[in-house]
Amino acid sequence: MTQTTTELCYLTIREAGALLRDGGLSPVELTRAFLERIESLDGTLQAYITVLADDAMAEARTAEAEILRGEYRGPMHGIPIALKDLYDTKGVRTTAGSRVMADRVPTEDATTTALLRASGAVLLGKLAMHEFALGGPDPTCGFPLARNPWSLEHIPGGSSSGSGAAVAAGLCMGALGSCTGGSIRGPASHCGIAGIKATYGRVSRYGVVPLSWTLDHCGPLTWTVEDSAIMLQAIAGYDPKDPTTSHAPVPDYLASVEGDIRGLRVGVPRHYFFADDPDVSKDTLSAVETALGVLEDLGAVLEDVTVPSLAYAGAAQSVIMASEAFAYHQSNLRTRPQDFGEMVRARFRIGGLFTAGEYVQAQRARNVLKRDFAEVLRRVDVLASPTMSNPAPRFDEVDAMSTARVPSFTGPYNLTGMPAISVPCGFTPEGLPVGLQIAGKPFDEPTVFRTAYAYQQQARWFERRPPV
Fold first, then answer.
1. Rounded Cα gap, residues 191 and 201, in angstroms
2. CA 303 – CA 6 distance, rounded (Å)
């Protein structure tokens, strides 16, 4: 790779978009730089399952011609992106990281895929993931395991593992991940980037291989908060193909990021996210406490809050997710169990052990959690916490039950459907990234973005890149 290639791949979407719009940069030049970087680095990082080099160059040439004709489509036009390999792509296999779907070639795009194409984005390829968005970094799944660009011995988070690794390493400018219990914010935290799970119903899930119908969300991972706002803008909105999507108007997310946060009320649920728990990293808590101090220095008003039903969130989320996942996969689990990796097969089978009564009780607990959060959000504007309870573990520290042993700091916001973003807030002494999580009221992504952006611009962790 040349220095010029690295410099181009380290541009943000916002920076590159302005250059592309004004003719200071060619989509062809930009796309070629990313393909060269992928060829140079992905043999080690294994972030991609499928690289679409020829298609990407053709799309870049089309984008270049359109821009030259004055047909500029907006800030995603000519931007090289990639998709977690559970987003359907017409004519391109979509595997969900499993041998079960290894030869599956969709006949149409997912709605989000189609919207990104309509925005003029250039698709570089399909990204690695934990099998069926739950399997974990499992060598028995039949697909390469994406590695963390900050330390190759550590996982990049999951299940959107390739999405986190590719964005952090400069192998694409933005990526779509999916999130059922933290699979956007987790990789964002572990890879030192930004990632937002918007409100349930804000983004269509049509054409996206499901894990849990009532918990799944789609959203972007990018290098910066404003890039996440740009990418979310391109995919947000009502979709008649997905009846769970909302008719609520989509605001201008990029316009919402800038502005001070003086007087903003930030709730901190210390009783859950900052409890004295041996399974929670002290280095993580220290970094987030420092980040809270930065928010306070910027004029935000911090207030300790209590959400009593958080104590039941982990159990409720596990029952709902596993039950719904088993319902989707039960036929293949019975007829071709050998095609599943060991981790995901074990996790899916747990879902077959829950009763209908237990599923209903979990949904009732979920409704209580929603009411408790709604009550707290009458007093505060956003909530702040660590994104993950620990920095990225080593591959040899992960097994089928690893996630069950530590509290989930992301899952509660899948249960409630509230918007939540992770933004980098520091590093452990070992050099592993830590994420700050900001959550807000339903459909109030603008305030979530504004808070995260204000912190980002003050702390400036985005200026530090991984050693690849």
1. 26
2. 43
**pLDDT tens digits for 424-459?**
999 999 999 999 999 999 999 999 999 999 999 999
Residues with catalytic annotation?
Answer: 84, 159, 183
SS3 assignment, position 466: coil
Could you tell me if 353 and 239 are in contact, meaning their C-beta atoms sit under 8 angstroms apart? no
Do 44 and 153 contact (CB within 8 A), yes or no? no
Distance CA(47)–CA(63), nearest Å, equals: 25
What number of other Cβ atoms are within 10 A of residue 262's Cβ? 10
Question: Which tokens belong to 318?
Answer: 């596990």
pLDDT reading at 2 higher than 80: no
How confident is the model at residue 288, as a pLDDT? 98
Task: Compute CA distances 275 → 183, 285, 380, 389, whole Å.
Answer: 23, 10, 21, 11
Angle (nearest 5°) at CA 395 between 325 and 347: 20
pLDDT of residue 406: 81
Handedness of CA 458, 459, 461, 464 (dihedral sign): positive
pLDDT in tens, 277-298: 888 999 999 999 999 999 999 9
How many other CB atoms are found less than 10 A from the CB of residue 270? Answer: 14
Number of helices (H), then strands (E), belonging to the chain: the values are: 16, 11
Largest CA distance in the chain: 61
User: If DSSP states are collapsed to H, E and C, what string results for 126-184?
Assistant: EECCCHHHCCCCCHHHCCCCCCECCECCECCCCCCHHHHHHHHCCCCCEEEEEECCCCC
Percent of the chain having pLDDT more than 70?
Answer: 98
User: If you average pLDDT over residues 144-165, what whole number do you get?
Assistant: 98
